[in-house]
Amino acid sequence: MSEVHAARRSRLRARRAPAGAEAALVSRSANVRYLAGPAPAGAVLLVGHSGADVLFAHWNPAGDPAGPRPAGDDGLRSVALGTDADPAVTAAAQAARDGAAALSVEEHHLTVARHRAVAAAVPDLVLNDLDRAVERQRLVKDEDEIAALRSAAEITDRALGELLESILVGRTERHLALELERRLVDHGADGPAFPTSVATGSHSGLAGHRPTDRRVEEGDFLTVCLGARFRGYRCQIGRTFVIGTSPADWQIELYEVVFAAQRAAREALAPGAEYRSVDRAARDVLDAAGHGKSLGPVTGHGVGLEIGEDPQLAPTAMGRLGPCVPVTVEPGVHLPGRGGVRIDDTLVVRSPADGGPELLTITTKELLAL
Amino acid sequence: MSEVHAARRSRLRARRAPAGAEAALVSRSANVRYLAGPAPAGAVLLVGHSGADVLFAHWNPAGDPAGPRPAGDDGLRSVALGTDADPAVTAAAQAARDGAAALSVEEHHLTVARHRAVAAAVPDLVLNDLDRAVERQRLVKDEDEIAALRSAAEITDRALGELLESILVGRTERHLALELERRLVDHGADGPAFPTSVATGSHSGLAGHRPTDRRVEEGDFLTVCLGARFRGYRCQIGRTFVIGTSPADWQIELYEVVFAAQRAAREALAPGAEYRSVDRAARDVLDAAGHGKSLGPVTGHGVGLEIGEDPQLAPTAMGRLGPCVPVTVEPGVHLPGRGGVRIDDTLVVRSPADGGPELLTITTKELLAL
């Protein structure tokens, strides 16, 4: 893996090269992981202008297995800091010693107080904004990253599949969520990609619903939304089921509308498609059915080392999809007091020549009566 | 509860009053919760100079039960924002409209990019630093807060007690951690206060060890560290057990030393005691036994709405304990390749007249052989 990270750092350096002898100070944790691999919390990466990259961190004193090390083949050196040292300040001082004329920092991540401490430590360095360069680089995934997402999705499908074979009536949202998270770990996840949501009855269809002590009852809609984190990569699946043998007419109708909206957005995924046109595809179906207003502001988003990455699939989002961009497609409708439906998938954008969008979360989207 | 929050905001206002018509923009989530009660993620609180306080947030469109509302008896109004609006920018604009001359912001929390957006939105307002005023106010807890911590500790003791009654040999750290977290929730916790740590064999005694697939074996030290979150308040307990009927001599000796160090620090807790003298009390015992070097940089810390609050009990920490300050006391020693011992308690500082330090986590600290 270390060659992968070195290549990513080279690409970042190449992008910043026109700025001259400019080093980059990367502090946002997912960005550090992307460029340097797993690192302790709070680690900061200095991407030097000349190729000498250094990771600064507080390692566990008792000997983290991935502890500090001299520079390897990949040109990355690690330095362990004392408790009181801010890795960002130490990294900036290193950039000055290495002869950088300017230092780009992540102004969307560093606080005002830390930025001031960095500036005070290196008065001769010009501080610029890295301007989300690493986030932009993370948007399109390489095949290693997509493989990790695929494994995360497999684990997630398996955990969900097992739950569907168990008795659900009478159990609380909270317990079902805990059981799903346990099964994710059982099947090899590092942990859940985000807090598992289980919503039954009048809660069903709510985005990001936090599980309560409400019990699953006969006749309920049951919405679950979960995902595994595997080698740092996070996927998402959402499904809605009906409890009992015979769904009510309103349930069948609502399910069909949300399913049609979700399918329309999935089918709109293609290299070159505008973010907002994918959103529009789902929104048009729900608008036509009179449910446009209960749709949230976003119908999907990128996934990767974080669960809510760029791009956003939303009415005002600017930009176009590229190949190898993984996104969720997750429209939902909630009818206050009654419940609702959400259907979420994680897919990778692929060209029609490559078979079109690659569906990672393959659990059936038929309306199952459990 | 709303009177409690209103009184807290009045105290903050009173502290800032010498600064004139200065409003405060509180963005750090635990600080917002402390001053306004539970609020959606990302909510920002404007504490007006004249007593008109407003909470700005993105509420769940499907009708969060604690959704936006007009000002109640407590003088707090809530405003729901559109997706694209930054609550900090909207709050600053409100302060300007309310006639504030200056606005204090949390420079240790706002990023450089957000601070710039706030400044651009209110060019006529002087922006100052709130300088951790809310964190300082949160240091000493009121009896409501201590009652929440007490409940959190009761839940934690119960979850741990149940685990001790089960068979441990052969189970993995990861599974034991998940089971403890499930039991916390079973007994009424909102969730774990921090990621549960279970460390067995050569991992035992490591601070913040992340559970692995290592299984508990006969003869192991087993260290668990967990805590419940209850009404937002977080406590911490850590215990080390020995697996099997007969601990080895080195295990008994190491346990006794860490226990003595932990007791010394607990006994040093009193109103007026220096933070560093509490740390010193534990460190001296371990130094004398030749284990001083394997002690981490901190032997305890405040707890409350966050798990690692002020004060820090560390060699260079400046300040003195006051009554009603809850802290952890958590020395640990890890011997590489062999394992080690941690013993963590949560206590509330009380004067000798009030019976001395109040121990919240009451699970026995005898060396149990399980």
UniProtKB/TrEMBL annotation, chains A, B:
Pfam family of the protein (one): Peptidase_M24
Domain of life: Bacteria
All residue ranges annotated as the Creatinase N-terminal domain in the record: 8-140
Coiled coil: none
Annotated transmembrane regions: none
InterPro entries to which the protein is assigned, alphabetical: Creatin/AminoP/Spt16_N, Creatinase/aminopeptidase-like, Creatinase_N, Pept_M24, Peptidase_M24B
UniProt domain Peptidase M24: residue ranges: 148-350
Alphabetical list of PANTHER family matching this protein: AMINOPEPTIDASE, CYTOPLASMIC PEPTIDASE PEPQ-RELATED
UniProt name for this protein: M24 family metallopeptidase
Species of the source: Streptomyces johnsoniae
